[in-house]
Amino acid sequence: QKDGYRFFMEKEIHEQCVVTSDTMLGRMCDEKVDFEEFDSSIIEGIEEIKICACGTSFHAGLTASYLFERLAKVRCSVEIASEFRYKEPLLNKNTLFIVISQSGETADTLEALKMANKEGLKSIVVCNVDNSSMTRIANYSVLTRAGIEKGVASTKAFSTQTVVLWMMALYFAQYKNSLSIEEMNSELKALREVPKSLKVHDSTHEKTKRLSKRYLHGHGFFFIGRDVFYPLALEGALKLKEISYLHAEGYPAGEMKHGPIALADPELFTIALMPQNLLYDKIKSNVEELSARDSTICAISPLDFDLADDYIKTNKYDHYMLEFFEMLVVLQLFSMEISVRLGNDVDMPRNLAKSVTVE
Ligand code: M6R
């Protein structure tokens, strides 16, 4: 039941503006965030947060690490679950352990959660499936309420996870009094606008269709961004890889000059995430360096950028997270349209399964 869409992925991209409202339902009051799943005792005695996840869920975790530190002023580290499991990690009881999983069944994330439980850490799972293996064993489960996600390429799972984690950062900020009333109000106002920022605009979709023709041939893609737009760049690259089978890498823009810029030539496509509200001048100068070395640049930004070979204009918002969500939709559409043009199976890409229950 694709409801008239060509693919489940396309349907799920369109659903994001609705399901993120469900994610927030009952969890946002006038001036605060509330979770019925836990109370403020969850943060008592907590000195740091550790997040573990795989794939797209890891990217949501990496995004959240910026938000937890910036908003709640809690130290936060993020690890890929398959690495965490075998590194003999030193765990501390004052750490809140958060795992993120759409399915709640990913073998490595489940094992990481078991390890944390065994060490007596407080654990939370951010999950889309109730009564999954992870929700059964975590101390607390926060459901993302994305509805069933059928496309192997995760879309609405990521946006709802990110919304939940942003809300959790604000919940902890309330407890820690780390934001002024004005700052908290502006965060809450931005959160309420998330569904709007996730709307698919026909003109943007058309643009990604047109661009998909040009970006089929080359020797690779760099998706670059800074701050939370770095995990978003990772997510954009992962989306493209898994359904188009083209080589793509996500990179923190400031790292390009430390090696990867050596690859720059017209056949290297740079997808540059250039938000207005966060480090615009910094990313701009990183992109200028790539352009000076002839990389083909596709800029995604609300601000005009003359050096771009192609340009996808996004809306202007007051908050960088709203720019983040609108750019997420652009990246999802872009990878989907490239996959379509290549004749690939968008919903069931080769070699991949929806849920990775073996390590
Ligand atoms: O169910 P999970 O969130 O634990 O799955 C983790 C990854 O396997 C998953 O996010 C994968 O990377 C996506 N299919 C990517 O689109």
From TrEMBL:
Keywords: Aminotransferase, Cytoplasm, Glutamine amidotransferase, Repeat, Transferase
The enzyme's E.C. designation: 2.6.1.16
A GO cellular component annotation in the UniProt record: cytosol
Record-annotated SIS domain positions: 38-178, 211-349
Principal location class: cytoplasm
Recorded superkingdom: Bacteria
Keyword Transferase: yes
Provenance organism: Arcobacter nitrofigilis (strain ATCC 33309 / DSM 7299 / CCUG 15893 / LMG 7604 / NCTC 12251 / CI) (Campylobacter nitrofigilis)
Subcellular location: Cytoplasm
GO molecular function per UniProt: carbohydrate derivative binding; glutamine-fructose-6-phosphate transaminase (isomerizing) activity
Keyword Nucleus: no
Biological classification of the source: Bacteria, Pseudomonadati, Campylobacterota, Epsilonproteobacteria, Campylobacterales
Catalytic activity: D-fructose 6-phosphate + L-glutamine = D-glucosamine 6-phosphate + L-glutamate
Gene Ontology process terms (BP): fructose 6-phosphate metabolic process; protein N-linked glycosylation; UDP-N-acetylglucosamine metabolic process
The protein's name in its UniProt record: Glutamine--fructose-6-phosphate aminotransferase [isomerizing]
